[in-house]
């Protein structure tokens, strides 16, 4: 519900902190596919905090990996 409310406001940048934490794997994929489709259609930049690297790599264009506040990696899916 919170994601839908954020999309309705159409911000230039959408910030999401663990939006999938309460969902099972099947719903995680559906939500990420919906987010990607809708934010692209609306021309929005989306920053998502995730702890599941597999989900991040499958559903994002760019991944930043942090540990203890330090940047470990920065790149697209192929890096």
TrEMBL record:
Primary localization: membrane
Keywords annotated in UniProt: ATP-binding, Cell membrane, Hydrolase, Ion transport, Membrane, Nucleotide-binding, Transport
Keyword NAD: no
GO biological process terms on file: monoatomic ion transport
SUPFAM superfamilies in alphabetical order: P-loop containing nucleoside triphosphate hydrolases (SSF52540)
Record localization: Cell membrane
Signal peptide interval: none
Top-level taxon: Bacteria
Keyword Transport: yes
GO CC list: plasma membrane
The EC number(s) this enzyme carries: 3.6.3.-
Topology relative to the membrane: Peripheral membrane protein
Gene3D superfamilies according to UniProt: P-loop containing nucleotide triphosphate hydrolases (3.40.50.300)
GO MF term list: ATP binding; hydrolase activity
PANTHER family in alphabetical order: ABC-TYPE COBALAMIN_FE3+-SIDEROPHORES TRANSPORT SYSTEM, ATPASE COMPONENT, IRON(3+)-HYDROXAMATE IMPORT ATP-BINDING PROTEIN FHUC
Name recorded for this polypeptide: Hemin import ATP-binding protein HmuV
Organism: Chromobacterium violaceum
